[in-house]
Structure to design on (406 residues):
């Protein structure tokens, strides 16, 4: 498709709707990352150091993507996207405010908090799926590439800098104050979305068309051997990645007895590693095949996990976090790049939702089980078992055709 020449001298920042949507996405991404990392820590404190309660909270937060990832994209196509987005944001702000009040009054109700965590992540997923459609409604077709690049940068940046944001919140006298900060971010995002002016046509789909859309996406996935095989590897790698990231917080607090301020600084090294990875990935991709980079990231993480197992000092912890942040970012970029390259554009939404659910299918189970492992054998059991699993995954991966993928 030829690019409309009339847009060559037009900057994307001239479109108010795009600017509002991008700013709202940034605020929501930061807020989401804060409470995603903060809630398990608060639960850990309130339960007087129960790793089972902490990991159960993370399990509840992981379930929505698993249950709803496949269907949300189809549902979003049938509703008013602006109103849907506003409701997703507003309800999250209300839930966070309720949780903030309960924590402030020292009302410890684990079951309620699990439910709140599940609701928050469900609504969060509902908004960010809607965002894809709103981007297309906010800018002309020739500027979509530039628009998506901006949103991709925000997603990557916030993901990489998650430990830094958490570190900032941990400097507060009371961790629960971080939830109130998140409420403020969500309220600001709500007003930004409210001021969007987009023209959209809501299509009412039938039950048959819903299942037909799903079936078409499933057929595309099952017929792509490379995508199926890579998804299987990602499924197992993600299980170790999520439990290690959660266990590091317990390890720094309970085993190394680090203060909140010191822990926040140490956690920031993972963000530094991620930033270095984001700056070097393009050069690495030129020199090495995608399959090789993906495998190298697996080994890099296994070394970092073994380092956590051997760690008895904060400096070694920082070094391992640096390597972990670097390897994890390389792994994520390779996984998403591979999925984009293997998926036809007209099926991107459905394949994204389907593979997203499959990527996370083992995470809730592994997170829940990790709490009992920590309770029985300590944090070291998570680190060494994750290192061994990643080595085994790499050895199997090395013998597959994926290793030679360009």
């Amino acid at each position: 498709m030829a690019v409309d020449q009339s847009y060559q001298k037009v900057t994307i920042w001239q479109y108010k709707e795009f600017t509002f949507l991008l700013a709202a996405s940034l605020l929501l991404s930061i807020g989401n990352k804060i409470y995603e990392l903060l809630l398990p820590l608060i639960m850990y404190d309130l339960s007087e150091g129960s790793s089972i309660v902490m990991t159960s909270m993370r399990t509840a937060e992981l379930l929505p993507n698993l249950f709803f990832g496949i269907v949300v994209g189809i549902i979003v196509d049938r509703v008013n996207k602006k109103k849907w987005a506003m409701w997703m944001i507003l309800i999250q702000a209300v839930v966070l405010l309720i949780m903030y009040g309960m924590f402030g009054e020292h009302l410890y109700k684990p079951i309620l908090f699990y439910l709140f965590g599940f609701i928050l992540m469900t609504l969060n997923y509902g908004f960010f799926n809607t965002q894809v459609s709103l981007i297309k409604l906010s800018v002309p077709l020739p500027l979509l590439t530039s628009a998506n690049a901006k949103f991709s940068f925000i997603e990557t940046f916030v993901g990489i800098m998650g430990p830094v944001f958490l570190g900032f919140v941990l400097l507060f006298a009371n961790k629960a104050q971080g939830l109130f900060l998140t409420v403020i971010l969500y309220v600001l995002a709500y007003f930004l979305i409210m001021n969007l002016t987009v023209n959209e046509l809501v299509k009412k789909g039938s039950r048959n068309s819903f299942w037909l859309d799903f079936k078409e996406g499933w057929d595309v996935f099952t017929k792509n051997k490379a995508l199926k095989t890579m998804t299987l590897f990602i499924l197992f790698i993600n299980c170790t990645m999520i439990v290690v990231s959660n266990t590091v917080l317990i390890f720094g607090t309970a085993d190394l007895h680090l203060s909140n301020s010191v822990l926040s600084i140490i956690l920031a090294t993972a963000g530094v590693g991620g930033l270095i990875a984001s700056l070097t990935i393009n050069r690495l991709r030129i020199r090495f095949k995608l399959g090789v980079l993906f495998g190298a990231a697996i080994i890099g993480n296994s070394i970092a996990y073994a380092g956590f197992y051997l760690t008895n000092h904060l400096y070694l912890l920082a070094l391992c976090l640096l390597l972990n942040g670097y390897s994890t970012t390389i792994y994520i970029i390779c996984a998403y790049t591979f999925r984009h390259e293997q998926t036809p554009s007209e099926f991107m939404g459905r394949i994204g939702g389907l593979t997203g659910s499959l990527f996370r299918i083992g995470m809730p189970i592994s997170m829940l089980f990790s709490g009992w492992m920590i309770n029985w054998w300590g944090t070291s059991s998570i680190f060494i078992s994750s290192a061994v699993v990643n080595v085994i995954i790499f050895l199997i991966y090395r013998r597959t055709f994926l290793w030679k993928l360009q």
Notes: Residues 21 and 193 are 6 Å apart (CA to CA).
